[in-house]
Amino acid sequence: MNSKVNSVKIGEYLYIKGRIGWKGLKKDEYLDKGEYRIINATALESDGINWNNCGFISKERYDESPEIMLRLGDILISKDGTIGKIGYVKELDMPTTVASGIFVVRNLKDNVIDTDYIYNYFQSSFFKSFIKSSTEGSVIPHLYQRDFYDMEINLFDLDTLAVQ
């Protein structure tokens, strides 16, 4: 089978955003209950997002960062501390956002690249190698948005992969 493979920069296909640090959301602003959920890296577990391990924030704090309001199909990646923990938003029962240590990754071209493929790629040894090479030598490991934008991923021509 002759399939075409294109290597592309992931930032050309994905929306990648994180909480802006200068907005200063502190852990002590988290609420015990509420109508606006916030996910931090401890909620990202090997089998998905542990919704019981999330906090809550005020409506004002939720509304100030529309760029990281979650949607179904979003992929979450921890970018500080324990880098590379992955979550996939397959359900969403209330307005939810992310804490400062997480990137929101959204597929902008689902007609070209499958979101499940992206999610599985982020769980692969290729992505783990990318994280390792991006953070080596750092005193405090951190995945930067600019490095993530420039990361290359292989896209396969789905028409040529179809069983004939």
From TrEMBL:
The lineage of its organism: Archaea, Methanobacteriati, Methanobacteriota, Methanomada group, Methanobacteria. SUPFAM superfamilies: DNA methylase specificity domain. InterPro entries: Restrct_endonuc_typeI_TRD (IPR000055), Restrct_endonuc_typeI_TRD_sf (IPR044946), Type-I_RS_S_subunit (IPR052021). Pfam families: Methylase_S (PF01420). The keyword DNA-binding applies. GO terms for biological process: DNA restriction-modification system. Residues 4-155 form the Type I restriction modification DNA specificity domain. It comes from the Archaea. Keywords: DNA-binding, Restriction system. This is EcoKI restriction-modification system protein HsdS. Belongs to the type-I restriction system S methylase family. GO terms for molecular function: DNA binding. The keyword DNA-binding applies.
